[in-house]
Amino acid sequence: MSVKMALPGLRDTSMKGILVRRLFLAAFTYTIAGLGSGLYYRELTKLNDFEGQPTMLSGVHTHFLALGTLVLLIVLVLEKLFRLSDSKLFGWFFWLYNVALVVTALMMGWHGTLTVLGQESGPAIAGTAGLGHMTMSAAFVLLFLALGKALKRDSVDSDVERVAVAA
Question: Cα(52)–Cα(45) distance, rounded to whole angstroms?
Answer without folding.
Answer: 10
